[in-house]
Amino acid sequence: MKKYLLKNLLVSMLCCSGATIALAQAVTVTVTVNATRDKRAVSPYIYGRNNTFDQPASFYKDAGLRFARMNGGNNASKYNWRRKITSHPDWYNNVYPNDWDQTSVEIAADHPDIQVMWAFQLLGRAASGRDHNFNDWAFNGSQYWEGHGQNLAGGGVPNTANPGGKALAEGDTALYTMAWPADSSVAILDHWFGNGGLGLNKNQFQYWSMDNEPDIWEGTHDDVMPDQISALEFVDRFIELAKKARAKFPEIKICGPVSTSEWHWYNWKGGGVTVSGKYYSFLEYFIKRCADEEKTSGIRVLDVVDIHHYPYAPADHDALQNHRIFYDKDYNYPGANGLKSINGGWDNSQTREYIFQRIEDWLTLHFGADHGITLGLSEWSPGPSDPNLASVIYGTHLGTFARHGVELFSPWTWFNGMWETLHLFSRYSKPFSVSSPSSGENTVSAYTTVNEAADSMTVIIVNRDMSDHSVTVNLNGISVPDGSYTTLQLSSLPSNETFVSHTNNALKESSVEVSSDFFVILAPELSTTAVLLTKATSEPVITGIEKYKRLPAGINIYPNPVSDLISVDINSDVAESIEVRVNDLTGREIQSDQKYYDGTSPVTVNISALPPGFYLLLIRKSSGTTVEKFMVSK
């Protein structure tokens, strides 16, 4: 009763103050956090993206990128790793250089903490040489035209009268492709990780796509597959290659079937598969076959059920609900199409998609409980390109996937606002998701994470509504001391890209007051707000610079002020690994690193990326943590 009275008193005080009058006007939502319920690990690989590294390495580290799918989508299907070439299905099938070796070596050097996904080829043919490319320069100066998809490599004749149709004469695929069986595909594992190979760390390259969107090969790769193979033959190819890959690399993560779209989750060549008189939609058939193989041979041929999705939304308010197609059994998805054929025939009443929940149900049915197979979404788009819409749609997917234990997530389409959102979630979320349902879940959601000890918590509140909401958050399973806590918010983003680095971005820092294990906060329209909380201890809560004034002395830093490199004398003769961290004066971490201290020599810290201002340098060693204030002057 006391807590209830305190809560209502605080809400009344907030609503009567001029500075917070918006709380009284906003629609109220209640979130109930429980740090002891539904605790599950958050995969770091949901913080992913497709393709290029075109910024300095520090940009991706600051943004918190943890996963990169680098295979180039359709350009992976005819990749020849021996000759370092591939055939471009959307540009006459011309063959061009593509060096996965060089890219992987560079990523390993520049981004050692990012997990990288490449792909095996299941199409059956790969590029062989460039001698028979269509001369697009002589044709039209290499300009784009509607006939870019005609099969002209290998001596084809363009159809200028009907650019959208087939070539007047199709090119000869034997002139620019070669047979490429499963053994050729998996041999790249020896080349990269085996004796005499490139020496890459296989732990950084565990995830492998099983080709790309095989259900539409008769469209994307109609030069070598004018007639789509059957679902039976495709899964046969899949299993053969998966077993060969597993034999070479037991720890590999095999990801498939990389289905193209909502239609293809359920259909292959326009339908499912009937086995012993029972009809199976395509994805269930695929899962059943993989389960049957594992039961027969004892070999796991599937680790991640990986699909693609480019969602349909008639309007922005529909796009803001698209996360619900994965687990929400009550959501009628306006883009439901292939779903209507899930049982064979056509049933217009089938509108509730919940595709990831369906997949999990199929996995349990065919593999059994505790199967250990996870889910992935390796191509996706938020839909609307407006930064505020893209930000909250992307953030909602990150929160939903963290909540349900999705393994990997790498959007294909990337809009302004998404780097900001990735940075907020990846940098400030904790390793474990816990329960935090909202009374207005369809408009305002809370995604709550804790560390392993559950003494540190981040509550990320996403408001997908076009109006502000007052959010009351009740904290259970963690006792948070009364006081002021930091909030970080993304809202009212401009049209241009705002993310530059961990210290130069669009995050708006503020604070919220916690009283009796609850707080009230205003969530502006189309916003994402992170609240950073700490559990009660026997000591009073001290934040910001006051916290560090109380730590024992033990280091001397010079020069001070500094512009690029700090030297740190440590008052200890113990040689050991130490943590070096830079915080701002509120206590927010700016950068951190692990270094080796030899017991005598100064430790050097590079702070050249920091803007001018005052900072705190923390050295954490076995005997404790010490801190000194320093100034950056440039």
How would you describe this protein?
Helix content is 24%, strand content 27%. The chain is built from 15 helices and 31 strands. Mean pLDDT is 91; it is low at 1-24 and 538-553. Helix 13 links the parallel strand 15 (374-380) and strand 16. The strands form 8 sheets. It has an 8-stranded parallel beta sheet with strand order 3-4-7-10-11-14-15-16. The longest helix has 18 residues, at 231-248. Helix 10 (282-297) runs parallel beside helix 12. The chain starts with a helix and ends with a strand. The chain is an alpha/beta fold and 634 residues long.
Kindly list the characteristics that best describe this protein.
634 residues; alpha/beta; eight-stranded parallel β-sheet; seven-stranded antiparallel β-sheet; 31 strands; 24% helix; 27% strand
